[in-house]
Amino acid sequence: MEFCAEKARDQLVKAIRDLAAEQGFTAVVVGISGGKDSTVTAALCARALGKENVYGVMLPDGEQKDLKDSQAVCRALGIQHRIVNIGEMHDALKRVTDQKEQTAGEGEFSVPFSRESDINVGPRLRMTTLRYIAQALGARLAGTGNLSEVTVGYCTKDGDTSCDFSVLGRLTSLEVVQVGLTMEELPAFLVEKTPTDGLSGLSDEEKMGLSYRDIHLYIREGTCGKPETDEKIRRREQANMHKRTMPKVLDPFAG
Questions:
Q1: 14, 30, 91, 105 — which has fewest CB within 10 A?
Q2: What is the C-alpha to C-alpha distance for residues 186 and 238, in angstroms, rounded to an integer?
Q3: What pLDDT shows up at residue 108?
Q4: What are phi and psi of 42, to 5 degrees?
């Protein structure tokens, strides 16, 4: 079935309104990274609920070179916004777990520094902060992840996978761009910006070793036309299924 970006956009706006009416909320919080996913999510929420009911939160971890893009999103949409720097929280976590000291007392284990673990701290601290703000405002937290990312596990458990509702979870990365380009309130350069995690210094595609086009074709067509790449995506999809489902509840009464 051919994808219609305008129809998908309008369906999502309606779905947000319907959910708000069903659950009785009027405002949402969105973490604004300056990338296409949070940009399009915020724009859809603003269309659905009114710009005055969307709170954009920018969450740099110390220095963030694309903070100006995040601010440009908020200005373009006219949404309420603020900056909360999580750098001190991140440093405090490393300090209290003694990662720099690498020492432990009798019967204690030491916590070694892990670059991957450290990179994932950012999304988890951001989500804690967003939930804190959302609850204080009596608002719901809108998720910004897309289907391409979650399919290959390019997301952080208890980080960007955590939300009250997922706006883009049924759209691939390429489809998010198409939807964003139908929204005249959004500057095209923000929608078409090369996706990065803002933490590792690499683009998403460089870090994954996969292209979003190949992931899109794998999801929508069943193959990207390259068997080795299909298998790589399939393995990642299977290995990261735990990020897409609720924690398994073990049954003490089975057997």
A1: 105
A2: 35
A3: 78
A4: -60, -40
